[in-house]
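Appendix B. Raw example, untouched.
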Amino acid sequence: MKKIVFIRHGQSLFNLENRFTGWVDIDLTDEGYNGAREAGAILKKHGFTFDAAHTSVLKRAIRTLWILLHEMDLVWIPVQKSWRLNERHYGGLQGMNKDEVMVKFGEEQVNEWRRSASVKPPVISAKNHLADQADPKYAGIEAENIPLTESLLDTEKRALVYWNEQIVPNLKQNKRIIISAHGNTLRALVKYLDQIPDEAVASLNIPNSTPLVYELDNDLNPIRHYYLTHDGKAAEDAIPRHIDLSDPNNCDWLG
């Protein structure tokens, strides 16, 4: 049996302000820092250790991983970063307050962006797209891979390239792996592992700073999954499936 741990970054400044984040490189709040520390303490309490770690190139995921590994005394393990683990690109919505987006575009349109796996938000402005292209984090990446906007399926496609090229070989070498990433990146990977249909993925939420453990067989098929809780107990099959999307507090995964 093989294990892999997923962790969504701690609360970010844009999470706190109820804004779409996407590829905006925003930092953690104090609560986000504390959540990362608690996640590291929980993993250590459960006896977890890791041989390697993977994360995006966005500081909220990187910093979460740094803090977590520091708590586990594992800062020495190799860490690989990739834009393919970035959050979903929210195009022209990035930086906008979600309540204001609802007023501007209407509930029906916003819910379609929230719930559909294939519908993309409006594209980012030309100026901001040029800023992404000029960002040194993305130097060497083909221009067509720097998106103007993305659907969840677009995010899944690029995340699975990384999964197959980097994570699968690690797991087949029996390396103990942690991935620190983002709500939509992790939703995409969970969707793939659990074979969740496109129409059902809208109700899938990945909470901040809560270790999610997948146990896999030798063919990397899921055996079971669970969150690790603060009281030291493993919460079996704890991935929320049915979320009230009319409540904005349940839509943190929107970036």
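End of appendix B.
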